[in-house]
Amino acid sequence: MSDTRFTALSRALAESVRAHPDFAGLALLGSASDEASGRRDEWSDHDFFAITREGRGVALRPDLSWLPDADRIVLTAREGELGFVAVYDDGHVLEFALADAAELAEALAGAATVAVDDEAETVARLVARSRERADAADGFDPENDARLVLVKLLIGVGRYRRGEVLNAGEFVRGWAVRQLVRVIRGRLTTASPSVRDTIDPMRRFELDFPEEAGRIADAVAQPVEDAARELFGLLCELEPEWPDFPSRAADAVAARLGWE
User: Fold this and answer.
1) In terms of residue numbers, what domain contains 195?
2) Three-class SS string for 146-214?
3) How far apart are CA 167 and CA 152, in angstroms?
4) Structurally, how many domains does the chain consist of?
5) Do 126 and 65 belong to one domain?
6) What is the per-residue pLDDT across 5-25, written as a single tens digit (0 to 9) for each?
7) Interatomic CA distance for residues 153 and 172, integer angstroms
8) 183 in the same domain as 87
């Protein structure tokens, strides 16, 4: 999507929300926000909070006809109780929460622009609290995360050997990788912090740690157990000069799996 089309759609979303009597406002998130527009590209989605007036979320969620260019939407789907996605005929994606402020009391937000708000500044206050929660949660415990890498690899390889290949792949290529990314970020905290997503550590990991990201990508392209061994090796390379590395646990996992 061109930047012109992207901006026009942002404005159309704001106009739709502003014109609807049951909405309190709209917050554009991530690359849809003004502050993060510099990282927007052709694959950027529209992420946003569509904030209803108090108690109106339940009534509004079944009807998405307020979305702009509704005739061009080829699918909508729900993600949980409050989350939605919509896809236009050009492949552009909307990902959004449709709820009142109370329902989003535990929401997290990074870059955000308040595009529409009511007299009580409901959306601005919600965004401020969401960003505070995201900042407070933006931390790593590399020792605990390293232990979790070992657990996910052990379970994943066990299930692979049992014949549960799909579930094993989820443990190794999904859960173990996510925890390993957290370990790397937690141990090397000074690498490109300005581009890091405070909500999802996986986002833009390649920009911060290109070498490690490439090795992880090469690992997960292999069969499940080969991938697990490569990830295990990458984790263990962090052991030197790390007194709290779970060395005994790593040795136990390797022994249980018969890895040299």
Assistant:
1) 142-257
2) HHHHHHHHHHHHHHHHHCCHHHHHHHHHHHHHHHHHHHHHHHCCCCCHHHCCCCCCCCCHHHHCHHHHH
3) 11
4) 2
5) yes
6) 899 999 999 999 999 999 999
7) 6
8) no
222: left (phi over 0), alpha (psi -120 to 50) or beta: beta
Specify whether 124 is located in the same domain as 26: yes
Judged by DSSP in three states, 65 sits in coil
Q: Are 123 and 40 in contact (CB under 8 A)?
A: no
Measured from the Cβ of residue 243, the count of other Cβ atoms closer than 10 Å reads 7
- Contacts of the segment 234-242: beta carbons below 8 A, 24+ positions apart: 234/180, 235/146, 235/149, 235/150, 235/180, 235/183, 238/146, 238/183, 238/184, 238/187, 242/187
Together in a domain, 15 and 127 = yes
| Separation in Å, CA 189 to CA 13, 183, 236 | 37, 10, 18
pLDDT tens by residue, 62-92: 999 999 999 999 999 999 999 999 999 999 9
* Mean pLDDT (the chain, rounded): 92
Q: Alpha-carbon distance 212 to 28, whole Å?
A: 32
126: CATH: 3.30.460.10
Which of these three, 120, 137, 154, is where a domain ends?
A: 137
Six-digit token string for 90: 């050009």
